[in-house]
């Protein structure tokens, strides 16, 4: 099987699901004739026609609202946010309507809202955000944020088949930087299950999305320079969180560093830390520590963006601190 | 508006942007810690996170 990029894996998932199920349709800004801002949906309009690949006005709340209505009528819409930063324009529709529709009115709302997220690309404050934590607090939404092409494909297919609304974050830094061969057949990765990206015994790094690669590079350096065997857990899904995988790695290594690209305060790491306290406190030999972005909007200038976001060296330093505790 | 006026406006805007980017490229890069300033009126800068202070 040829290797494909993370971006191509997302497209492959869309094509396969649209071929499998005629109820699946895509809608978003410039996704049809233009093929999407990053070309994720290139070719879909020619293949599936303009009744299933729908160019919309620049109105994110309307995109999500129209998708919700279509979902109530039996469709499985996949909405694209041109940049995930713009999902905030649909916050009301997602949190007040979509997330609550099953609970309020017995109305299933199986939609996927997907789009490019994250920084390290010199995109500045409106094109680099990681808004996952803003939605983690909303019951009724599922949240997925893959780090590898195979997971991007398999998790998107699972998200489209899921009977609940799923926010699917795609890291734009990874779009064309990572590639791998896809598993054969109908590759579906279940939501809510983390994976062990690297086995270790001395320390665990729990992370997701682009910082999985940051953590893996740090782990290699720590093994080479310090003789530390660092385990890296890729959460893949943030809602639901894989409590069993989190507890298992705590019991194995007894030291935990949580790394994410989103800002520190109110970030996903705080929730994971609380769960570790509740599930496996007695197994800890050191306090859980967090490496995350500084609590500022993401600046454009390369020197400033690099300072704000977690880097490999930061993870190495934090891991050494934990290992020595 | 006449075509000439539009072209003059375009040229003026292009010149202004070119001068601004030239000046930015001639300037030294900002101090990285400047990224932490200006979020709030007070405090003037948010704290540097713990992992940057480890030596």
Structure characteristics:
heterodimer; A: 325 residues; alpha/beta; 7-stranded mixed beta sheet; 5-stranded mixed beta sheet; 14 strands; 20% strand; globular; B: 55 residues; mainly alpha; elongated
Set out the fold topology.
The complex is a heterodimer of chains A (325) and B (55).
Chain A: E1 3-5, H1 6-20, E2 24-28, H2 44-48, E3 53-55, H3 60-72, E4 76-80, H4 91-98, H5 101-105, E5 112-117, H6 132-136, E6 142-144, H7 149-161, E7 166-171, E8 179-181, E9 195-198, E10 203-207, H8 210-226, E11 230-234, E12 237-239, H9 243-253, E13 256-263, H10 268-280, E14 289-293, H11 302-308, H12 312-324
Parallel strand pairs in A: 2-3, 2-4, 4-5, 5-7, 6-7, 10-11, 10-13, 13-14
Antiparallel strand pairs in A: 1-8, 6-12, 9-11
Helix pairs in contact in A: 1-7, 3-4, 8-12, 9-10
Chain B: H1 3-26, H2 50-53
